[in-house]
């Protein structure tokens, strides 16, 4: 079975996929996935960038607050009306044999999937996992939102919290699915997520 390995020598996640070809010695095929940045950590820590927003951009965000309240926030669903990760995964509360049968069935379905599928899934999961911390905190600090309490009724703040909750569900589902598949090296993935969350990010779209 092919196993994807994610290296964290730098902050960028890089896949190293050992593929056995008959009786030949496995070879390694690197596939880069940019998780955060390839800059050395020391360089990042030396930079101190705030999130000021040009007046014209801030004006646009402010002008859209009522529109967001009227047309975006009504689309948000409460937790009891959203799908949850456990609904799409093997049920661990059932008898052990039944649970293991579902896990084996999941592994059987993933066994034939190309490696490239897992490169995409892992890259997505890394981003989803870091979103509630790194991405949420960064966007929350921009001038258009600037939620200092973490529970502001500002429509953009409300949307951001709901979006974060939704993306967190995606990450939980992907993490468990990949873990049960046995096709990826979860330890290396976890180290990559640790690096991404610990280093943080500079969000330039709102500047």
TrEMBL record:
Any one Gene Ontology molecular-function term assigned to this protein's record: stearoyl-[ACP] desaturase activity
Keywords: Fatty acid biosynthesis, Fatty acid metabolism, Iron, Lipid biosynthesis, Lipid metabolism, Metal-binding, Oxidoreductase, Transit peptide
Domain of life, source organism: Eukaryota
Cofactor requirement: Fe(2+)
Gene3D superfamilies linked: Ribonucleotide Reductase, subunit A
Gene Ontology biological process terms, A to Z: fatty acid biosynthetic process
Family label: Belongs to the fatty acid desaturase type 2 family.
Name under which the protein is recorded: Stearoyl-[acyl-carrier-protein] 9-desaturase 6, chloroplastic
UniProt lineage: Eukaryota, Viridiplantae, Streptophyta, Embryophyta, Tracheophyta
């Amino acid at each position: 079975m092919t196993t994807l390995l994610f290296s964290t020598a730098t902050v960028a996640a890089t896949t190293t996929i050992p593929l056995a070809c008959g009786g030949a010695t496995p070879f390694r095929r690197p596939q880069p996935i940019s998780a955060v940045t390839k800059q050395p950590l020391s360089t990042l820590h030396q930079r101190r960038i705030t999130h000021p927003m040009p007046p014209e951009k801030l004006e646009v965000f402010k002008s859209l607050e009522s529109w967001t309240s009227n047309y975006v926030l009504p689309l948000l669903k409460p937790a009891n009306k959203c799908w949850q990760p456990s609904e799409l995964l093997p049920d661990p509360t059932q008898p052990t044999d039944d649970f293991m049968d579902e896990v084996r069935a999941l592994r059987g379905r993933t066994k034939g999937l190309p490696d490239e599928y897992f490169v995409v899934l892992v890259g997505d999961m890394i981003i989803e996992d870091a979103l509630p911390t790194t991405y949420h905190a960064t966007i929350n600090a921009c001038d258009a939102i600037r939620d200092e309490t973490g529970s502001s009724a500002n429509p953009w703040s409300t949307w951001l919290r709901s979006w974060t909750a939704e993306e967190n569900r995606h990450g939980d589902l992907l993490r468990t699915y990949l873990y049960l598949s046995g096709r990826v090296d979860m330890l290396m993935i976890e180290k990559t997520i640790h690096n991404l969350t610990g280093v943080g990010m500079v969000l330039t779209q709102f500047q």
